[in-house]
Amino acid sequence: MDILKKLGDCGVIPVVVIENPDMAVETARALYAGGIDVIEITLRTPTALDSIRAISRAMPCMLTGAGTALNCEQTQAALDAGAKFIVSPGLDREQALFCAKNGVPLVPGCVTPGEIMAARSLGLDILKFFPASVYGGLSAIKALSAPFSGIKFIPTGGVSISNLIDYARSPAVFAVGGSWLCTADDIKNACFDKITELSKDAVKVWHSVDIRNNGGMQS
């Protein structure tokens, strides 16, 4: 399976913080019912690895990855739990080399020309742009994409249903990451129907745009 291609095909990547691993599988099922078959579990809670493990075992149809992986140790722990891809808020050379050695897709956060050049020197061309709203959002991505042909971005932080179509129209945007699809409160309160509906709405918006045709609308 081409994992990066699947991320791009999905287009909308839920960035999920799960406090209670007992809610992990139901959360994944709610996303899947809404047409999203990718999930990024952030390593911000002590139970994140348990959540990755539970989803990986119960839903092999869901591509499960780990976010906020800061170093090689966290990366290895996430892989041991079943993560198939790694997302980091920044670029760490040791982590990048570790993932390359083990054949694991890594999407590191890069928001400056220097970081992008460092990532490209390591063979990475799909980069997280985080926090997007703080670092200039879509206008910054468009400006950065001009001198760095071949680099694609996954903006995260400040992306929502209200601006999703603008990001989707940009050829420089590979996919988007979003926490609005399943907030910590919605998971805690078992609002799974809401998560499914939000997912359906996001998928509909994303796929209404043909990003392979210079951002033109599909007929």
Which of globular, elongated, flat, extended, rod-shaped describes the shape? globular
Helix content: 40-55%
Low-confidence stretches: 211-219
The span between the termini is 30 Å
Describe the structure.
With 219 residues, the protein is of the alpha/beta class. It contains 10 helices and 10 strands. Strands 3-2-1-8 form a 4-stranded parallel beta sheet, sandwiched between helices. The chain has a two-stranded parallel ribbon with strand order 4-5. Strands 6-7 form a two-stranded parallel ribbon. Helix 2 crosses helix 10 and helix 3 packs parallel to helix 4. The longest helix has 15 residues. It is globular. 42% of the residues are buried. The C terminus is likely disordered.
What is the topology?
Layout (H helix, E strand, L loop, with lengths): L2 H8 L1 E5 L7 H10 L4 E5 L5 H11 L4 E5 L4 H10 L4 E3 L4 H9 L4 E3 L4 H9 L4 E4 L7 H9 L6 E4 L8 H5 L7 E3 L5 H5 L3 H15 L2 E2 L5 E2 L2
Parallel strand pairs: 1-2, 1-8, 2-3, 4-5, 6-7
Antiparallel strand pairs: 9-10
Helix pairs in contact: 2-10, 3-4
